[in-house]
Specification:
about 600 residues; alpha+beta; seven-stranded antiparallel sheet; six-stranded antiparallel sheet
Length: about 600
């Protein structure tokens, strides 16, 4: 019996955690097997699941299942584990007699006998051993026969040889192969799913019921159905899979093209918005400028004609008054003669005074009431007609050409006219707030971080960071330009000479301030009474300031876009000075300077 004492090592069926025979063995994804309870406790409380043997780490805790085949193997060989030998599986433990062993094997013999000759292998699955451990066919043993010791020994030898070859070295190919196991877990070969009813490989496919089945299912439940092997079914599905994959790739390609098309449409829309914005601004700005120019020209022409008519009327009235005065003298003399008793004197005098004094014929004389506005209205009507035609074309074709082609006038007459009144403006250091830093040529100013030690004269501002221009404006028209660059805050305009320069200042026209303000990069406002914000479509980088002292006007222009921004109308009774405030530097965000730039009079 010692011949059969060394087939399997007990270490191959021991859990490496509890060092005992597997109980409910379970295999990890890396191929190592442990008792389900042991590996579960090993992982409980750990942040990372790791194999105790190979130390492979799993990002997600595996869902372990009991390996039924390995459990059946350990259950079959567990009773054979003895206490003698150096860790070997024995037929019996130390001190076990042959009679005791034979008696024990006789109890297990019915389960270890091979199936009768000619019986299908699948019908022998009722025994405790798995199907792939079924014994090979051997000469049948009659039911009435009592097995002898030699017969039992032969059966034991055959069973252990089969167990050793199929557990330690399982066959490489078999039509009924289900799953291969090593003593450490799943082998590195693909597995076939098992039928839940018959525990055989799902090697067939029923087209009628559209389900995978095992050979025994085919015999019992699918005899008249259309069945093929799973491999054949997969070959059919694989062709459809390639077609489906190609179709999906084509759908993906179409959608990627559509995404690119939509993105291009958005880009085109953005370009159209920019083109429409620029074109509409130029178009309407041209109309507004034409109307503004016509209005200003109307006011000027009417004022000139009014002054001319008044001068003409005054002249005529003066002449008429002189003639009336002369006629009144003649009338007084004639009335005196009627009361005189000196008839000789009366006769002589009357002969000289009988003819009326020389006078002008006033019958056809009248004051000229023509205001001279008809040509201006006609010119404006022509401009409006051009605007309407341009508007109709734009409504039909859009802004296809460059925006400048839609302008009613290429250079606005109002801007070109005021450029002729350009003056040289410089900054007055004596009025500058101590934080302001002026350039050497007194053409630019910015706000510094520190207060400079400067004389506190009456003309210097001590609270508001601003500075005035040197040149006083007392009459006529004056124009200058200031580069504001990308500053986020600034104030520009003119102030009255007598303004308060100390302490807090309320900037309104009533207090002698007329200027335009920018706050937070895009909030423009006029300081006329309550601060009035307004929207500016095109952000100006150069501001033009025009002052007509006699008319009481202060106007602001976007120099780059040649657009009028706003005009103050007031009455000036004392000298005005240019006003500049770069505001505080806002921690470096508003660190730029206000720069007085030369006016380009050639445009």
């Amino acid at each position: 019996m010692a011949l059969y004492g060394s087939f399997l090592s007990d270490e191959q069926f021991l859990c490496s955690i509890c060092l005992d025979v597997f109980t409910n063995p379970s295999t990890t994804p890396c191929g190592h097997s442990f008792c389900l309870s042991c590996i579960t406790k090993y992982w409980d409380g750990s942040k990372v699941c790791q194999c105790p043997l190979c130390k492979k780490t799993f990002q997600k805790r595996p869902e372990l299942q009991i390996s039924r085949t390995l459990r059946e193997i350990t259950e079959q060989v567990r009773p054979l584990k003895g206490g003698g030998g150096a860790g070997r599986w024995k037929l019996g433990g130390k001190g076990t007699t042959t009679d005791e062993l034979v008696d024990e094997l006789q109890k297990k013999l019915p389960h270890m006998l091979p199936p009768p000759t000619g019986t299908d292998e699948a019908q022998s699955t009722d025994g405790p051993l798995p199907t792939f451990l079924s014994l090979p066919a051997s000469p049948p043993i009659m039911a009435s026969s009592v097995p002898t010791d030699s017969t039992i020994a032969a059966l034991i030898q055959t069973h252990l040889q089969k167990l050793n070859s199929q557990v330690l070295q399982p066959p490489k190919s078999s039509s009924h192969y289900r799953r291969r196991f090593t003593v450490c877990g799943a082998a590195n070969t693909s597995s076939i799913a098992l039928c839940e009813v018959h525990h055989r490989g799902l090697t067939l496919y029923c087209k009628t019921d559209q389900v995978c089945i095992c050979p025994q299912c085919e015999v019992l439940d699918h005899q008249d159905h259309d069945t093929v092997t799973v491999k054949e079914k997969w070959m059919e599905d694989e062709a459809q899979l390639r077609a489906s994959e190609q179709e999906i790739q084509e759908m993906i390609s179409q959608r990627m093209k559509k995404i690119e098309e939509i993105r291009q449409s958005v880009a085109k829309l953005q370009s159209a918005v920019e083109r429409e914005t620029a074109g509409s601004v130029c178009l309407f700005s041209a109309l507004f400028s034409a109307i503004e120019h016509a209005q200003a020209e109307l006011m000027e022409v009417m004022e000139m004609n009014q002054r001319a008519a008044k001068h003409q009327a005054d002249t005529m009235i003066r002449q008429l008054e002189l003639e009336v005065e002369e006629l009144q003298k003649r009338s007084f003399i004639l009335s005196t003669l009627t009361q005189s008793d000196d008839h000789v004197h009366c006769v002589k005098t009357f002969s000289m005074l009988s003819a009326p004094p020389p006078t002008k014929d006033w019958s056809g004389v009248s004051v000229n009431l023509d205001l001279g506005t008809v040509p201006i209205y006609k010119s404006l009507a022509a401009q409006v007609e051009k605007f309407q035609n341009a508007l109709k074309n734009i409504a039909e074709t859009g802004f296809l050409a460059s925006p400048s082609e839609h302008s009613l006038i290429r250079v606005q007459p109002r801007v070109k006219k005021i450029q002729d009144y350009a003056v040289n403006v410089t900054l007055d250091p004596g009025t500058a707030h101590p934080r302001l830093i002026l350039s050497e040529d007194l053409k630019s100013v910015r706000c510094g971080d520190r207060v400079q030690q400067l004389p506190d004269n009456l003309e210097r501002f001590d609270k508001v960071v601003c500075v005035l221009g040197k040149e006083a404006i007392s009459t006529g028209r004056h124009y200058w330009e200031v580069d504001v660059g990308g500053k986020t805050d600034w104030d520009l305009g003119v102030v009255r000479q007598s303004i308060n320069r100390k302490g807090k200042i309320e900037v309104t026209p009533e207090n002698g301030y007329w200027f335009l303000s920018l706050r937070d990069k895009n909030k423009y406002a006029f300081r006329n009474g309550p601060c009035r914000d307004f929207q500016m479509n095109l952000r100006p980088h150069k501001i033009g300031i025009f002052v007509d002292f006699n008319k009481g006007q202060v106007s602001f222009y976007n120099v780059d876009a040649k657009i009028h921004i706003y005009t103050f109308n007031d009455t000036f009774s004392e000298n005005l000075f240019p006003f500049f405030s770069p505001c505080t530097n806002k921690s470096g965000k508003n660190d730029g300077a206000l720069i007085i730039i030369p006016v380009n009079t050639t445009e």
